[in-house]
Amino acid sequence: MRIELPTGIFTYPDIPMPQVWTVEQPVGACALSPAEVEAAVHGSVESLLAAWGGKRGTVAIGVGSRGLDNLQRIVRTAVEELRAAGFEPFIVPAMGSHGGATADGQTQVLASYGIDRESVGADVRATMDVVEVGRLEGPDAGEFTGFPLVVDRIAYEADAILPINRIKAHTCFTGPIESGVAKMMAIGLGKRQGADGIHRHGAHGLRELIPRVGRALVSRLPVIGGIALIDDALGHTAEIHALAPSEIGRGSETDLLEHARTMMPHLPFDSMDVLVIDEMGKNISGTGMDTHVIGRMNMPSIPPADWPGPDVRVVAVLDLTPETHGNATAIGLADIATRRLIEKVDWVATLTNMRTSGEGGMLKSQIPLIMETGEDCVRTSMGACGQFPPERVRLARIRNTLDLRYFEVTEPLAEEARRKPGLTVSASSHTLDLCAPVGR
Question: What does the alpha-carbon distance between residue 353 and residue 371 come to, in Å, rounded to a whole number?
Answer without folding.
Answer: 25
